[in-house]
Amino acid sequence: MAQTAAAPLAPDSQESDVVYFLEQVNAKHLILFEGFESPGLEAAFERYAATGKAVLHRATIRDGGKPGMFDYTQTGERKLDENWVPSLRGLNLLQNPASGIGLLLGTSGTTSKPKVVPILQSSLVQNGYIIASTLGLLESDTCYSIMPLFHIGGISASILCSITAGCSICCDNQAYNPESMIDAIAISNPRPTWYSAVPTIHNATVSHIRYMANNSEKLKSYGVQEDGTWTNGHSLRMIRSGAAALLQTDAINLSTTYGGIPVIPTYSMSEQMPISQPPVGKIDMLTDKPGSVGVPVATSLAVVDSSTLKPLPFGEAGEIAISGQTVISNYSNNQDADRKAFFELTLPLHRSCVAARGRFFLTGDVGALDKEGFLTLRGRNKELIKKGGEQISPFAIEEILLLHPWIEITLCFAVPSQIYGEETGAAMVLSPIAPTGVTTDEVVKEMRGLLQKNDVSPFKWPTKWKIVQSDDLPKTKTKKYIRVGEHSFI
Fold first, then answer.
1. pLDDT digits 0-9 by tens, 139-166
2. pLDDT tier, 86 (very low <50, low <70, confident <90, very high otherwise)
3. Minimal CA–CA distance to 120: which of 327, 386, 287?
């Protein structure tokens, strides 16, 4: 309700990124709380305040159990802007209208300078309602909020949708780790009935449950069976997956681990949450529409040729473009990013595609629509491996490699090639059941046999293979794998 916008930042942000963010949003007041450890953020605040562009305040959380209350321990002085003073005489001074900015988010910036996404109050409310209604949330539900609250997935797909439906919410006071998440699911009071997370979190938790099932008395006391399934002892009735594509193999493992509960695959991004989810009441996505992330639920959606921006026929892969009231209309102070992201769809449409005329936003994701309007993701446009004249989806290769019991995690990406420009590289994390002392050559032989068995063209096979540890794989602050740029482990 205050005449402000929330602008959450990751605790481990780099100083230069924070300063850039503050400049983009034209911050006027900065608040640092006592006991909060974030060297990069604190240094950035002090550096930015020293320029005179903003006032730095220090504060402490107020005791008494009332959330959100705090006291200033040190504060700067600044006169009111004379141009703003007349508004003091107006009504509803402390009300941010529906058309006002309610949230400012920084993109990950893994391939370029981070962009600032301004989201309107009306969009936050509408999107929270859309997520709640399409998921079928009930007042009796309890959400386990595990996604970070500087990320749209934590803000909208855990908190705001739960508030909209009148759900309870339980939050961790520490960063994700699989053991604490399992504890929260098993012994929170009330116990969670659902949660939303990215594939990395799903997969790490499933791996922990499966590999510790025989050796952990605590897991056994929670009801985890020796085969790694957890049918009784938790109250989860569904799991929402978003932010990145959940491979079909991983989705099946996730559902099976928790006793066959529905896994709801979705698609969204900071610029629009949500973009697609399964239709209301359609919970059997894994067998009926394998690999799909549902249908557009808050936007008009077109799959277009990245070069011509012409809509493509059903079944043909191209760049996903979206349009609608809740899609952002621009980035903050970044006209160059706006020129690259937005375009007017004016070409004549034909019966074999779905789209609407008007201003569209290019998501940078590659996907295809089937004739029933269900969307399937094929990866990020920048992640596609461009070998010769052919584009290779890293997800398509990863999904095959994960079928092998020796492989726990795999990441495919482009590596330089003198002949083709780019070829496929693969980093693999071995599972605990892989033979002790197995060599890279032995693993590669198994992988090539698996690719051949699944009719993958040898032209698409990885030519560079590496066995790595899980911590070696590059991830964003929100635990999404990074498939572009140089990789230190190759």
1. 999 999 999 888 898 999 999 999 999 9
2. very low
3. 327
Number of domains in the chain: 4
* pLDDT digit string, tens, across residues 307-318: 888 888 898 889
The stretch 342-352 carries a mean pLDDT of 69
Q: What angle do CA 270, 314, 263 make, to 5 degrees?
A: 50
* Residues 314 and 241 both lie in one domain: no
Find tokens 């959940």 and name the residue: 246
Residue whose C-alpha is closest to residue 322's, from 345, 338, 348, 346 = 345
Q: Are residues 166 and 206 in the same domain?
A: yes
Dump pLDDT digits (tens) for 450-481.
999 998 889 899 999 999 998 888 887 767 78
Dmax (CA) of the chain: 77
Element (H, E) at 394: helix 394-401
In this structure, what CATH number is given to the domain that contains residue 177? 3.40.50.980
For residues 236 and 144, membership in a common domain is answered with: yes
Q: Distance of CA 145 to CAs 176, 192, 268, 434, Å?
A: 10, 9, 17, 34
Q: Does residue 201 belong to any structural domain of this protein? A: yes
Q: Reduced to 3 states, what is the DSSP secondary structure of residue 408?
A: strand
The closest alpha carbon to 162, from 185, 189, 131, 199, belongs to 131
Can you give the residue range of the structural domain that contains 8? 1-87
Within 13 A of 365's CA, how many CA atoms are on the CB side? 28
Is the CB of residue 289 less than 8 Å from the CB of residue 317? Answer: no
| Close Cβ partners of 26 (under 8 Å, ≥ 6 residues apart) | 53, 333
Q: Which amino acid is at 163?
A: I
Give residue-wise pLDDT tens across range 183-210: 999 999 999 999 999 888 998 899 999 9
Q: Where are the alpha helices (DSSP H) in 118-269?
A: 121-135, 152-154, 161-165, 178-187, 199-212, 217-222, 248-257
1 band by pLDDT with thresholds 50, 70 and 90: very low
Tokens 């100083």, residue located: 15
**Domain-terminating residue out of 265, 284, 319:** 265
